[in-house]
């Protein structure tokens, strides 16, 4: 039960991505967001439900998250799925990600890895870095699908270019090890640096170990003589 509730809470976070803290006009999406941030979940649900029923995709996604986590309403995965789908069908990538997660975990719907991947793909193709990372991990590990190194590299690269620190770290490892892609230490260092710059402490440690493992010639070729 705790794992299910944790999954639901994770879905709810999608509702607050890229949202400002300004109060906004009464009845606006921002007013709902402001209420939720103050802990007035009932008011947030009331505002977002009105907007969602009028076809506002952001409000539909937010409302879905509230139903998934049981904030301001009783937990209801069926309604969460309904509102995630409504927003996803309007092209909202956060909603597509949420719907994919519900299918992946079997929350309010029969578990279906194929449907999960399809919704993740829609979100990923819309540029949603979290979905790109999830797809990369699926293809890299062969989770419910045949492992595909090329697709894994494609989606890790897309997420890394979008600034996802975890994807940057994983891409550095792929280049370091020649896993699904030609070994390229220059690219490995580039992505380790990017991940470290995004606050990933493990990237800094792994970069240091990689540099320590190189002989003098390799360091010179990579411009690391003074590293």
Architecture overview:
The protein has 13 helices and no strands. α4 packs antiparallel against α5 (77-88). It is 69% helix and 0% strand. The longest helix has 13 residues, at 41-53. It folds into 2 domains: 1-126, Serine Threonine Protein Phosphatase 5, Tetratricopeptide repeat, CATH 1.25.40; 130-227, Alpha Horseshoe (Serine Threonine Protein Phosphatase 5, Tetratricopeptide repeat), CATH 1.25.40.10. It is elongated, with a radius of gyration of 21 Å. The chain has helices at 2-13, 29-37, 41-53, 57-69, 77-88, 93-105, 113-125, 129-141, 149-161, 165-177, 185-197, 201-213, 216-221. The protein is mainly alpha-helical and 227 residues long. Keywords: Signal. This is Sel1 repeat family protein. Residues 1-23 form the signal peptide.
Condensed summary:
The chain has 227 residues and is an all-alpha fold.
CATH superfamily of the largest domain: Tetratricopeptide repeat domain
CATH topology of the largest domain: Serine Threonine Protein Phosphatase 5, Tetratricopeptide repeat
Helix run count: 13
How much of the sequence lies in strands comes to: under 5%
Cα-to-Cα separation, first versus last residue: 49 Å
Helix proportion: 55-70%
Oligomeric grouping of the chains: single chain
Element string (H = helix, E = strand):
HHHHHHHHHHHHH
Q: Which structural category fits the helices and strands?
A: mainly alpha
Task: Find the count of extended strands (DSSP E, 2+ residues).
Answer: 0
What characteristic shape results from the CA principal axes? elongated
What top-tier CATH class of the largest domain fits best?
Answer: Mainly Alpha
Assigned CATH architecture of the largest domain: Alpha Horseshoe
Question: Strand count, sense and closure of the main sheet?
Answer: none
Low-confidence region ranges: 1-9, 17-21
- What's the alpha carbon Rg, rounded to whole Å? 21 Å
Q: How many domains, as an integer?
A: 2
Mean pLDDT: 89
